[in-house]
Amino acid sequence: MIGKTLKHFEIEELLGKGGMGVVYRARDTRLKRPVALKILRPDLVTNRDRQRRFLQEARAAAAVTHPAIAQIYDVDEVDEITFIAMEFIEGETVGQLIAKRELDLIGSVEIALQVAEGLSRAHEANIVHRDIKSDNIMVTRDGHAKLLDFGLAKLLDPVLEGKEEESSRALMEAETLSQTRAGTILGTIAYMSPEQARGQKVSKSSDIFSMGIVIYEMVTGKLPFERETPLDTLHAIGFEEVRPVTRVRQNLPPELNRIISRCLRKRPKDRYPDASPLAADLKNLKRDIESGIQRSAPLSGRIGQFFESLKSSMPFGVIGIAVAAGSLVLVGFLMFTERSQGSIIVLALSGFIFYRYIRNRKNRMLKRFTKEISKFPEVRAIIVRGDQVTVVVNQAKAKLYLRVNSLIDLVNKKLYFGGHVEAAVRDDLSSDEFQRMLREPRVIYVRDDVILKSDSEIAKEEDSTKSLIGKGDVP
């Protein structure tokens, strides 16, 4: 493509490649200025769905005008080549700046604020970016942040509701591609929101989660959920809490930790609803840092956090709190009035039965989980150790992983007591490890064709392996 001219854009050099397009530096021969020209990959020209999404990128980005969003100049199709001409930005990505350790606290907050303000403008237009990551944020030589690549953006139009299969398909493609293009797809997965990781519908709060990851990465130099494999990363996004930034790096403001923590809540409704209040908090934080002020959480905020914690731990949320309070009042009334002991005993017994019913809810829900997951033919066994569920499989597939995550998330949402359940999908167990796990008392499912070996058989295999190792036949 180098040297080719599309309309009045003369292609000069290759800048990079993405999931759907190839980006070139080109020259606008009419206005005599450099532009970035993004061209749909040749192997995707016949894919009408990808082409529609590619054009949607331009329309979504062109609908928003803000200094922190790369400007779109033109979108067209010439000789079956679809392209977008956009603002050419000289500078480095946030990812590059992080790798070079060139970001300090105030610089990180300033970049986050600029991007949040630009994203706020997009959210006002009902546009969700869906691919916010450090490599999609450029910082110009004069320190201005620019949000790039609305390639996965989707207009939040009611007509489009119900067409969210793309996320699930993309995730399945990601697992396959990550095996041949290590690091390319994983880089995007590490910034996904829990709902994106499960192939569910995304919203403005999905962008907020990704923004929280970028801010965390800028101030600590680490990705909060990145693990060794894509599946482990997805599991961390869905179920693991991040270490507070104030523990990862000393002397960071508590207010920064509060902002990041709110961005990284697992439930979308617990995050900032859109980028506007996030930008407002970042602006206040920047002012405090510049003035040397460090604010602690206000009393009202601490009371609110306590109430939220109580609400999440009580059966039926607010209704559960009301029932518990009413029960305490009733017990007090019966105790301090002339009521028979029988009434108190009956009430206490009813309360105990109700408590036991709720207390055993986790076991009942894990049985339902086992019933659903055991339907997958690749599942060999399911083992429960405390709050850890291990699903042993022949091969870990994205479809199974999505289902496991979805069901475990449902279990955790309906838990009333105890810690949240975590799940792990294992396809890397040796024969000896698997046999040892099968002998544990908390095995709740084993596939019919799985054979439990005797102790003598396991001992013979171990002796045989040691003998081969001694002879050098086994590396």
UniProtKB/TrEMBL annotation:
Per the UniProt record, which residue ranges are transmembrane? 316-336, 342-358
The family database entries (CDD domains) matched by this protein are listed as: STKc_PknB_like
Reply yes or no: does the keyword ATP-binding apply. yes
- Occurrences of domain Protein kinase (ranges): 9-285
Give the PROSITE patterns listed for this entry: PROTEIN_KINASE_ATP, PROTEIN_KINASE_DOM, PROTEIN_KINASE_ST
Which GO terms of the molecular function aspect are on file? ATP binding; protein serine/threonine kinase activity
For whether the record's keyword set contains Metal-binding, the answer is no
PANTHER family, per database record? MITOGEN-ACTIVATED PROTEIN KINASE KINASE KINASE 20-RELATED, SERINE_THREONINE-PROTEIN KINASE NEKL-3
- Return the protein name: Protein kinase domain-containing protein
